[in-house]
Amino acid sequence: MAKTVLVSSCLLGLPTRYDGTDNYSQAVIDYLRQENLIPIPVCPEQLSGLPTPRPKCWFTKGDGEAILNHCGAICDESANNVTEAFYRAAEETCKIAEMTGSSLAILKQRSPSCGSQKIYLNEQITAGIGATAARLKRAGLKLLSEEDLEPK
Q1: What is the spatial order of strands in the sheet that 57-61 belongs to?
Q2: Is 136 left (phi over 0), alpha (psi -120 to 50) or beta?
Q3: Which of 26, 32, 79, 112 has most Cβ atoms within 10 angstroms of its Cβ?
Q4: What's the gap between Cα 18 and its chain centre?
């Protein structure tokens, strides 16, 4: 029986990126087929009620772990604090993982929600984890990014 896996919907070609475009990844599609996995598309920002398109967002303090511990911050490009929306996004995405029995998530690297190894902190790429990725990791899911699946 095929297993379910959460996948950032932008990686599947859905126009859910902040700017209304996608981040289609053939490597992700190929991996899903090779492993006989059923993708469960998720866009944490949309789950939290943020619109598409939406202003670009980045961490201004900490990373996803800090958000879960209520000591981090995410702002949009107009300096509006959107931390609570990203916290809510992480919780809603985790509910979907639980409902679908997913133990793996393939998430978009560098996203303030989905980055599993890299994020933007004050508009600079740095090591860190997104809010949703941190929440899924706490729930025991294995995390991969599209970069983990691309040929080296």
Answers
A1: 73-76, 57-61, 118-121, 124-127
A2: alpha
A3: 112
A4: 12
